[in-house]
């Protein structure tokens, strides 16, 4: 634990290398993982990983998020030719509209990188429409920028 930065490291850290985020888990020459286990015969008891975003500035005092706000992000990083971690892909949730007392309208995005970010590769819109190359799909499946290839049989 680094008291000055309030960062916690679990695993293979040394005095010269400290964790660079609130919680870092690292190991050398082995896979690193996190398990969230639930052992229960009840159907309502599940393992949960929650990403929670608030516009409040005091811990424990949530305030509603607004339209266009990114409310959660999962990143996949590799190491680039400059020996620095760099983006490979990301999955993120972005609010789409004003929140209400019972819901936060949210779209889910999947982006990958090649020489730069390929944005809006796959978007699951809050109304149930899916966009490929389109961040505001207007039909159940809305594809922009390419053809569709189907191999094998197509059944109705």
Question: Can you walk through the features of this model?
Answer:
By secondary structure, the protein is mainly beta. It is built from no helices and 8 strands. It has a 6-stranded mixed sheet with strand order 3-4-5-6-7-8, with no helix packed on it. It has a two-stranded parallel sheet with strand order 1-2. Strand 3 and strand 4 form a beta hairpin. The model has no long low-confidence stretch (mean pLDDT 88).
Give the helix proportion (percent range): under 10%
Secondary structure: number of strands? 8
- Unreliable stretches (pLDDT < 50, length at least 5) are none
Radius of gyration: 20 Å
> What percent strand?
25-35%
Shape: extended
Amino- and carboxy-terminal Cα gap: 58 Å
Structural class: mainly beta
N-to-C series of helices and strands: EEEEEEEE
Number of helices: 0
Please give the largest β-sheet: 6 strands, mixed
Overall mean pLDDT: 88
> Strands of the largest sheet, in order across it?
3-4-5-6-7-8
